User: What shape does this take?
Amino acid sequence: MNNQQILADAIARFLAWQKQIYPDQLPDEIGGEWEIWYADWQEIYDAFFTILKEENPYTAEKSLLDNMLFAISRDNEDEYIINHMTKHTQWFTVLCKYALQTKQNQAKWQFAAYLPESDCSQEIKDLIVAFANDTDEYVCRRALLAMPKIRPDKVEEFATLFWHRNCYTPELQEYQRIVALNVLCEIKSALLPEYLALAKQDDSMYLVQHANRIQEELESYK
Assistant: This one.
């Protein structure tokens, strides 16, 4: 049996378990940390890591890429696979580009978050901009958090966009604005005082608390 089939079979067993536990839901519909209760993750890890070592990413078929993305998606709590992949630059490059063409949001946010940790080319790291433009709220939010490390020149543009667009629920918009403050602070942006003032005028409790915390830290450095 070849490596690709071993991974496919391991994923099939995972799906059989999932359908037994959650018979009326697709994996992305379940929510929560349900995947961590699967007992045979090591089987998936072993099959996946063997492919990383022995297979050529540039000749990989779509079915293999889809199975690999599925495994990454379901490993979204431990992030064990994506962390390991940062040591396999070619595979990281291929799957990062491929993920952007899919709706595998649980995989996409992990690639966005781990782009700074990979030794991939600057061309691939620049995909952080595409992830930041993703329509999924969590994907783009994780991309903005990673942006200061690889594209600090884009931080102010996206922090401003995230702050003002109001295209999510109030709770998610609050998260967007908290991240905007974080990255503006990280790059020591001249825009930070303006957005700290805006945050303190907001009705969102956690945003106000976060702004006050940043302000106190800045003042402690003086």
Remarks:
- The chain has a mean pLDDT of 95.
- The radius of gyration is 20 Å.
